[in-house]
Amino acid sequence: MRIGLGVAAVVLLLAAPAAVGDPFIQRVAALVLLTAISASAWNLIGGYAGQVSIGHAVFFGAGAYASLLVFKLFAWPPIAGAPFGIAVSLVLALLIGVPTFRLRGHYFSMATIAVAELIRIVVGNWPLLGAAVGLMGPAVPRGLADLSFLSPLPYFYIFAAVEAALLWVTWAMARSRTGYYLRAVRAGERAALSLGVPVLRYKLVALLLSAGFTALAGSLYAVMVGYVDPESVLGILVSVQMVIVAALGGAGTLFGPVLGAVILVPVQQATNAAFGGSGSGLTYIVYGAIILAIARFRPGGLLELLHWRPRRAA
Amino acid sequence: MPPEPLLEATGIVKAFGSFRAVDGAGLTVREGEIVGLIGPNGAGKSTFFNCLAGDTQPTAGLIRFAGQEVTRAPADAHARAGMARSFQVPVTFEDMTVLENVMVGAFLRHPHRRDARERAREMLEVTGLARQAEARAGGLGTPGRKRLEIARALATEPRLLLLDEALAGLNPTEVRDAIGFVRGLHARGITLIVVEHIMEVILSLAERAVVFNQGKVIAEGVPRAVVDDPAVVEAYIGRSLAGRRLRRRRNPP
Amino acid sequence: MILAQVIVSGLLLGAVYALFSSGLTLIWGMMNVVNFAHGDFVMLAMYVAFVAYTLLHLPPLVFVPLAAALLFLLGLFVYAAIIRHVTRGPMLAQILSTFGLALLLRYTAFWIFSANFVTLPDTLVGGTVAIGGLRLQAARLLAGAVALVLTVGLHLLLTRTALGSRLLAVAEDRAAAQLVGIRPDRMQGLAWGIGAASTGIAGALIAMFYYISPTVGESLALIAFVTVCLGGFGSVPGALLAGLAIGVIEALSAYLIGAVYQDVVVYALFVVLLWFRPQGLLGQA
Question: What residues pair up with A135 in beta bridges, in sequence order?
Answer without folding.
Answer: A228
